[in-house]
Amino acid sequence: MALGATLSRSGFPSCKPSAPAGSYFCCKPPSKATAAAASVGNGVLAINRSSWRCMSTATASREAMAGRRQEKKGVVDKEEEWRSYLAPERLQVLKEMEPWVEEHVLPLLKSVEASWQPSDLLPDPAALGSDGFHEACIELRERAAGVPDELLVCLVANMVTEEALPTYPSGLNRLEVVRDATGADTTAWARWIRGWSAEENRHGDVLNRYMHLSGRFDMREVERTVQRLIRDGITVHAPASPFHGFVYVAFQERATAIAHGNTARLVGARGAGDAALARICGTVAADEKRHEAAYTRIMGRLFEADPDAAVRAMAYMMRRRIDMPTAFINDGRHSGGDFYARFIAIAEKAGTYTLSDYRGILQHLIRQWGVEELTAGLSGEGRRAQDYLGALPNKIQRMEEKAHDRAVKAGKKPTPIPISWIFDRPISVVLT
Ligand SMILES: [Fe+2]
Ligand SMILES: [Fe+2]
User: Fold this and answer.
1) Any known ligand binding at 364?
2) Which residues are the signal sequence here (predicted)?
3) CA–CA distance, 76 with 354 (Å, rounded to integer)
């Protein structure tokens, strides 16, 4: 859930965008399917098919060979880069951190007794009786009737992201040291993973039940989306490295807190007028803030213990962009990559999660982890990572401005995108 459609850095080495004119053969633009696969497969940047141009045969083959060599080397370098984090001496810090996790991270979970439950936020037939329940449902439906379509679509995206929960603890259980090897480990790390998953489980439940009662969604289509998402999994960079993994989760928890928080504001009393839905989204957002605090704290500790490894891991992840975990999201009417790009445009228009939010999260984490103030213990690569991260927010801002200027210049008309979740009613957005 982030940057819009821009050019990929690689993926099609025999073609390049905007090559100069001359004696050319036309290299085929990547097929829709390939472009989409590259977009989500890399988890990097989406490919705009129309930007691909032609180039000379000789140049093409020279560049193709150089590109393949470079690409092969790049892949090896990247593998070596993140795999070096699995060395026992580098993982030692995580082992030593366990008492600290016990003291500083586990208290951020709430006990079951102190936790809200979905039934606290929704009409309860047992408490209200049959007439009272019926009345409360009618009220819920009346309030929901005022929520505009684009917010309904964003709400579904928020909900299915939560409902894809089985994917996320699987991700944490791939991390060295941290993983819950038996499913009932007693380490502080393992108890955190299970406690966090248990808190997360309520998020999808409450949103799902609200949506079911509201009558505004084609629930069968939404449910099919959830099934597809869990089946398709997630693209993870550096899958076993806790350094990289915690950068990703810290970013994502803040992103989900912002997305649920923005949705709460937009659907609430001062927006679409559904105060009950705003309360649900706000309650979920508050949980996400606690989770964000935990992962940000863990990563902060890693920055203190091994600043070089931490800053390089952060740069590694940001170079590949932090996409929403459910980048394979699909309403069943579009190809996966196409739908993701369209959803990003809808979320940007609706204001639930925007490119500015993405930039804001990055700036926040840079401040939280004192990235720009790091001095001691940085290697040359670490200093390059620090410089890259320091310059990235401005770079993203320039991309935002350029994308806006391009859209205005091109005078693009909005494209209607029919979405199955809302009975194929279209949402019109300008696709860049
Ligand atoms: Fe959540
Ligand atoms: Fe969360």
Assistant:
1) no
2) none
3) 34
pLDDT, average across residues 389-418: 90
Residue range 210-240, pLDDT digits in tens: 999 999 999 999 999 999 999 999 988 999 9
Query: Does 292 appear as a known binding residue?
Result: no
- From the list 63, 189, 203, 357, the catalytic residue is 203
Closest listed residue to residue 240, CA positions, set 63, 340, 397, 91: 91
CA 26 vs. chain centroid, Å, equals 36
CA-closest candidate to residue 115, choices 188, 211, 203: 203
pTM of the model: 0.83
- State yes or no: 103 annotated in a binding site: no
| 3-class secondary structure per residue, the chain | CCCCCCCCCCCCCCCCECCCCCCCECCCCCCHHHHHHHHHHHCCCCCCHHHECCECHHHHHHHHHHHHHHHHHHHHHHHHHHHHHHCHHHHHHHHHCHHHHHHHCHHHCCCCCCCCCHHHCCCCHHHHHHHHHHHHHHHHHHHHCCCCHHHHHHHHHHHHHHHCCCHHHHHHCCCCCCCCCCCCCCCHHHHHHHHHHHHHHHHHHHHHHHHHHHCCCCHHHHHHHHHHHHHHCCCCCCCCCHHHHHHHHHHHHHHHHHHHHHHHHHHCCCCCCCHHHHHHHHHHHHHHHHHHHHHHHHHHHHHHHCHHHHHHHHHHHHHCCCCCCCCCCCCCCCCHHHHHHHHHHHHHHHCCCCHHHHHHHHHHHHHHCCHHHCCCCCCHHHHHHHHHHHHHHHHHHHHHHHHHHHHHHHCCCCEEEEEHHHCCEEEEECCC
Q: Is 162 annotated as a binding residue?
A: yes
pLDDT tens, position by position, 275-323: 999 999 999 999 999 999 999 999 999 999 999 999 999 999 999 999 8
What spacing in Å lies between the alpha carbon of 332 and ligand 1's midpoint?
Answer: 23
Set 63, 149, 150, 162: catalytic member = 162
Quote the ligand 1 centre to 14 CA distance (angstroms): 42
Does the active-site annotation cover 354? Answer: no
What does the alpha-carbon distance between residue 112 and residue 77 come to, in Å, rounded to a whole number?
Answer: 45
Confidence band of 22 (pLDDT split at 50, 70, 90): very low
